[in-house]
């Protein structure tokens, strides 16, 4: 996967960065750590500008988030979980319970979740879906998503600039950390899922 990511970025520059980050937001298994740190490294030996790479990555993040926000608007949670129960879930490495965890997180934190979850592995993509479920106003969603994504992208691009030829080593460590953090966070969120779902059922019955 890393080889074709690098090839796309080398061939297409800023549009390639935007495209890869948009896809990364929709398909979380694609590692943003690799995309952004290599993008930072590329600015040290090509004509690519650091801040334009960051802006391209942020544009891609917003595009990907809008796609998932739209999915939340159009697909009820039950339908989305049914889709993730099949081949689509295996392809994306997402499971029906991940939807409940993202919805639960959003239900507890509201607007703050859209911003702060941009820094949380896996959840940063999924949080756009419950925002759509909740019919969150589009303007604050875009503002919070853009600002949070900009900060995340800025940090990783500058890490790539600082690491230079060692960017792939740093990206590997970041990927490992992201995987471990994801497991811990999802396990913690699981505790609140049943309570959240029970409240939703009771509200619908009342």
How would you sum up this structure, described in words?
There is one protein chain. Helix 1 packs across helix 3, helix 3 runs antiparallel to helix 10 and helix 4 packs antiparallel against helix 6 (96-109). It is globular, with a radius of gyration of 17 Å. The chain starts with a helix and ends with a helix. The chain has one domain. Residues 176-197 have low confidence and may be disordered. With 206 residues, it is mainly alpha-helical. It has helices at 2-26, 32-42, 50-74, 77-84, 87-92, 96-109, 111-116, 123-126, 128-133, 138-163, 167-205. The longest helix is centred in the last third of the chain and has 39 residues, at 167-205. It contains eleven helices and no strands.
Question: Topology of this protein?
Answer:
Blueprint: H1 2-26, H2 32-42, H3 50-74, H4 77-84, H5 87-92, H6 96-109, H7 111-116, H8 123-126, H9 128-133, H10 138-163, H11 167-205
């Amino acid at each position: 996967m890393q080889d074709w990511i690098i090839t796309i970025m080398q061939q297409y520059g800023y549009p390639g960065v935007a495209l890869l980050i948009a896809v990364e937001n929709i398909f979380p298994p694609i590692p943003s750590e690799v995309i952004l740190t290599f993008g930072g490294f590329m600015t040290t030996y090509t004509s690519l500008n650091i801040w334009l790479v960051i802006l391209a990555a942020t544009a891609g993040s917003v595009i990907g988030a809008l796609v998932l926000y739209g999915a939340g608007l159009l697909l009820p949670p039950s339908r989305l979980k049914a889709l993730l129960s099949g081949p689509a879930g295996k392809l994306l490495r997402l499971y029906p319970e991940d939807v409940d965890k993202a919805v639960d997180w959003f239900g507890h934190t509201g607007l703050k979740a859209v911003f702060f979850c941009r820094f949380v592995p896996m959840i940063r993509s999924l949080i756009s879906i419950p925002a759509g479920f909740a019919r969150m106003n589009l303007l604050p969603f875009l503002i919070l998503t853009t600002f949070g994504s900009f900060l995340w992208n800025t940090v990783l691009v500058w890490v790539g600039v600082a690491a230079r030829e060692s960017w792939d080593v740093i990206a590997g460590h970041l990927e490992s950390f992201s995987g471990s953090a994801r497991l811990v966070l999802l396990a913690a969120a699981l505790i609140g899922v049943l309570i959240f779902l029970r409240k939703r059922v009771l509200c619908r019955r009342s």
